[in-house]
Design goal:
Biased composition (Basic and acidic residues): 402-417
Number of domains: 4
Radius of gyration: 41 Å
Number of strands: 17
Structural class: alpha+beta
Pfam family, one: rve
Oligomer: single chain
Strand content: 15-25%
Shape: elongated
CATH architecture of the largest domain: 2-Layer Sandwich
Largest sheet: 5 strands, mixed
CATH superfamily of the largest domain: Ribonuclease H-like superfamily/Ribonuclease H
Strand order of the largest sheet: 7-6-5-8-9
EC number: 2.7.7.49
GO biological process, one term: DNA integration
Domain Integrase catalytic: 149-299
Length: 478
């Protein structure tokens, strides 16, 4: 009995027979439907189906009956081998062995094999491949969700560090309302240096209500958190690895680096001062006013004011909120839903890992928990549904279509500029004088009729004067 059990185990552990034409022909003969189809191809198709055959099973072959043939007991459609149902899963595994995309896998399969609904089977195989799902690219970006418009200056500020840049570290502070910029050179990104710099700036402009920052160590430290709480500041951090959420500061970081790199003369303090004074007096495209006007309700004096002896135009405050709306719909996830979260690690590790939604923190942010019980703050751009999604080629087409629709929607929905230009009356600045005829022309009348003596009046040639005679007066002519 033990020997027989050993034989059974050996049979169960034997490797599968390699797929070849003989194996396909053998399984074709064993399948009740495929064997009858082979007989129909060799002996002719009947008018009525035999018992045991259903119309749905025969219809795909009957539609191609003029293109079907047999060779060595294998059914061929053109040059493609018709695979029996028993080994179709193995053929799919061979086709998807290199984990190629859906389109390429279909192209490869159409070069060798065929069976009814083969394309649908390939799509399901790719969508349910765990390795392919873990290495999928990022989903389409969510539509831009702007921050709420601040109503007063210095109520919400965005902060970030710029550097190392030319061996220096800089702290960037931007006011969300006026776009007023503060740049300070700091020894390092340590929390104590950041707090000291913010303390000096807040002593001038006041303590803001909200501070927006990324998840840098200087902003997430216990010392910084304690300092903000003691000063009554609400500290909001963006989703990790999504710097676009702090776009105010990120944009100013790039602008600061670009400008300081262009300034070649002066020390760092001089370069920063020149950059800031220019930034403070330059009108922004959003409001049409400079940050200084929005911050202090007045223009600050610069060397450029020496060029104008007086201000003749009244500055009008024109503000508008840029709403970037598009056809993209922000993806939402239900509480306790299982999702695939972006994994930021080495290139050899899977790009996605399963996590569970704990709660929604904001319009585009969620709190998730992983298999180890760790909770994280996630942006929707880093979350995907655990259900299969489209392949790489389909995602690319969808992204391009969404971008084109987004541009059309933005053109239709963007409000017209509200810039109002006051029409000032035209004032002739040249001096005026009263024009009159000389005394010697007192008895003459100006006329443009031909004849008489020519004269020039105020530099206008072609006018003639003629003396009035008594005959003309009697005739009533001039």
């Amino acid at each position: 009995s033990y020997e027989r059990m050993g034989e059974v185990f050996m049979l169960e552990n034997m490797p599968e027979t390699p797929l070849n034409a003989e194996r396909v022909a053998e399984l074709t003969g064993r399948d009740p439907v495929m064997s009858r189809i082979r007989d129909f191809i060799q002996n002719g198709w009947p008018h009525n189906l035999e018992d045991g055959l259903e119309e749905e099973q025969v219809r795909p072959f009957k539609a191609r009956r003029d293109e079907l043939s047999t060779y060595k007991n294998c059914i061929l459609w053109g040059t493609r081998v018709v695979i029996p149902p028993k080994i179709r899963e193995r053929v799919l595994g061979i086709l998807h062995g290199a984990h190629i995309g859906m389109v390429r896998m279909k192209s490869l399969a159409r070069s060798y094999v065929w069976w009814p609904s083969m394309d649908q089977a390939i799509e399901n195989a790719v969508r349910h491949c765990e390795e392919c799902q873990q290495q999928q690219k990022l989903p389409a970006r969510a539509s831009i969700h702007p921050w709420e418009w601040s109503e007063v200056p210095w109520s919400r500020v965005h902060i970030d560090h710029a550097g190392p840049f030319c061996g220096q570290q800089f702290l960037i502070i931007v006011d969300a309302f006026s776009k007023w910029l503060e740049v300070r050179r700091v020894p390092s990104t340590a929390s104590e240096h950041t707090i000291q710099c913010l303390r000096e700036i807040f002593a001038t402009h006041g303590i803001p209500e909200v501070i927006i920052s990324d998840n840098g160590t200087s902003f997430t430290s216990e010392a910084f958190q304690l300092w903000t709480r003691r000063n009554g500041i609400r500290h909001t951090r963006i989703a990790p690895y999504h710097p676009a959420s702090n776009g105010q500061a990120e944009r100013m970081v790039q602008e600061t680096k670009k400008t300081l790199k262009k300034l070649s003369t002066g020390n760092w303090e001089t370069k920063i001062a020149r950059f800031l004074i220019t930034q403070h007096i330059t009108p922004t495209s959003t409001t049409g006013l400079s940050p200084a006007e929005l911050m202090f309700k007045r223009k600050i004096r610069t060397c450029l004011d020496l060029l104008q002896p007086s201000v003749v135009r009244k500055v009008r405050e024109n503000q508008q909120k840029m709403m970037w709306a598009g056809p993209r719909t922000t993806r939402t996830f239900d509480q306790s839903a299982t999702v695939l979260a972006r994994k930021f690690g080495g290139s050899d590790e899977p790009r996605w890992q399963q996590e569970q939604i704990v709660r929604q923190l904001g319009p585009v942010t969620y709190e998730t928990i992983d298999e180890r019980g760790r909770t994280q703050k996630r942006h929707v751009d880093h979350l995907r549904r655990s259900s299969p999604e489209t392949t790489e080629e389909s995602d690319n087409n969808d992204s391009l279509l969404q971008e084109e629709r987004s541009q059309e929607q933005m053109t239709r929905d963007r409000p017209e500029d509200l810039a109002v230009t006051e029409q000032l009356p035209t004032i002739n600045q040249r001096p005026q004088r009263n024009a009159r005829l000389p005394e010697k022309f007192r008895d003459f009348v100006m006329t443009s009729r031909k004849g008489g003596m020519s004269c020039i009046e105020h530099g206008k040639p072609g006018l003639r004067v003629r003396k009035t005679s008594s005959m003309d007066e009697e005739d009533g002519r001039l």
